[in-house]
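Quick one, tokens below:
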């Protein structure tokens, strides 16, 4: 009798363990964000529901400003069939190695300028790597208003340049990682990750004619005088190609190199002088021209789009309404995750998905974007906000979805401690958000590269319910 009771009790324990394991498996199979704290869905005490969304497409009025440490995008995207065209030009200044020192040995010993090279530090590409790009270098006009005391927006109007082209370079994007061999008389140097643009020798001669005097030609007397004589470079792209090149203006490999000959101790010597980025201000003017399906959806006058189009900054955003949250009863929310599923596009191998998405919420007036303080793990970072994207979400997951954990936000809605806000999803480089926790505005850093990545997602009205943008909730009754 005792043995029978022991076996019955053991079987009961085994059945409970199997049931618990199956329940946990159900959670973990359907959400990457599941964890051991979420009880199994048994439809007795714990339930699962999916709320529909309403989605709409918009252009992003991005006010981001280019910092001196930002990587710079250069190039032209001509044939993105889903999103249209994009052009990226760069502007930056250089400075001589020292002030009050003539940088070309001795002026009366200078024999000739052999060549002038603008070297750009290559950091990566985006787009069709088999395509060809052409960059042209000009001098920024003194009347252009380009100054080193201003942070320029990506959508700033083009700066005026002097009409004479200083030099150009045509190249294939995939060859930028190749080793470059530079032969200078008896010296051979191998370089990697650089784009070298030859400039006209007359520009180098012009630099050798500056001096350290207190005259109008005293460019090496001070940095401010040098900038009055030479405002900086404009690197502009031709309308060919189908990709972007990323350079680092502040890297040591970004520099102007003037190769020249001087007479030393009665013999000729070949040498060079380098001018580097001023590390104060640069401008990266990136302009999108919507085309393809994106342009159609922007102008369709619909408020419930079945697809949403997210182009990385400067680009687009989509709004998300979840009406079902207004009628959700007072429950215990164990998990609430917003699920976005990318749809395939013909050129996806070239134009990859964004590195990371961001979700915020917009107040009823539509003039303030708010953080999800509790869900994001938002923290003050000396005037900007840092957050835990591994916890909050926004990264592309192994199941080819992007997900956001907004459990605490949803819990506060169902307990009437928060409003059901309109949500906004986009792929910024950095953006300014208001934190209700800290009660001030701060910058939130999301992606490192401007204009890198775009994706088409299934919207709230998409034909296939399993791919629709939706909110999945696991909850218990109190």
């Amino acid at each position: 009798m005792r043995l029978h009771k022991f076996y019955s009790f053991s079987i009961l324990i085994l059945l409970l363990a199997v049931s618990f394991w199956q329940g946990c498996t159900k959670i973990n199979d359907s959400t990457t964000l599941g964890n051991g704290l979420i009880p199994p869905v048994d439809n007795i005490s714990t339930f699962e529901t999916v709320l529909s969304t309403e989605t709409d497409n918009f252009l992003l009025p991005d006010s981001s400003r280019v910092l001196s440490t930002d990587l710079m995008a250069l190039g032209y995207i001509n044939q993105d069939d889903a999103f249209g065209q994009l052009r990226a030009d760069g502007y930056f200044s250089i400075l001589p190695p020292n002030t009050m020192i003539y940088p070309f040995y001795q002026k009366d010993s200078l024999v000739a300028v052999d060549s002038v090279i603008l070297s750009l530090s290559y950091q990566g590409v985006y787009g069709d790597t088999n395509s060809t790009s052409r960059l042209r270098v000009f001098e920024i006009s003194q009347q252009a208003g380009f100054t080193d005391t201003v942070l320029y927006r990506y959508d700033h109007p083009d700066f005026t340049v002097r009409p004479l082209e200083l030099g150009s370079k045509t190249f294939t994007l995939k060859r930028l990682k190749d080793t470059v061999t530079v032969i200078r008389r008896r010296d051979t140097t191998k370089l990697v990750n650089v784009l070298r643009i030859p400039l006209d020798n007359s520009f180098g001669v012009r630099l050798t004619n500056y001096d350290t005097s207190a005259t109008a030609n005293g460019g090496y007397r001070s940095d401010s005088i040098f900038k009055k004589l030479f405002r900086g470079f404009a690197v502009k792209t031709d309308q060919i190609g189908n990709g972007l090149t990323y350079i680092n203006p502040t890297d040591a490999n970004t520099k102007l190199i003037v190769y020249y000959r001087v007479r030393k101790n009665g013999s000729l010597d070949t040498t060079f002088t380098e001018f580097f980025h001023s590390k104060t201000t640069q401008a990266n003017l990136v302009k999108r021209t919507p085309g393809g399906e994106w342009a159609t959806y922007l102008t369709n006058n619909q408020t419930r789009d079945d697809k949403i189009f997210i182009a990385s900054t400067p680009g687009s955003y989509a709004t998300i309404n979840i009406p079902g949250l207004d009628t959700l009863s007072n429950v215990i929310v164990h998990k609430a995750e917003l699920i976005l599923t990318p749809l395939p596009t013909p050129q996806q191998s070239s134009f990859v998905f964004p590195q990371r998405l961001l979700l915020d919420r917009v107040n009823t007036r539509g003039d303030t974007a708010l953080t999800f303080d509790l869900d994001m793990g938002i923290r003050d970072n000396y005037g900007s906000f840092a957050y835990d994207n591994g916890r909050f979400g926004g990264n592309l997951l192994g199941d080819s979805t992007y997900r956001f954990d907004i459990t605490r936000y949803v819990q506060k809605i169902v307990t009437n401690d928060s409003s059901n806000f309109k949500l906004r999803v986009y792929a910024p480089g950095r953006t300014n958000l208001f934190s209700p926790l800290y009660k001030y505005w701060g910058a939130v850093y999301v992606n490192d590269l401007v204009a890198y990545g775009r994706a088409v997602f299934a919207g709230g009205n998409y034909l296939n319910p399993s791919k629709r943008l939706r909110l999945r909730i696991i909850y218990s009754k109190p």
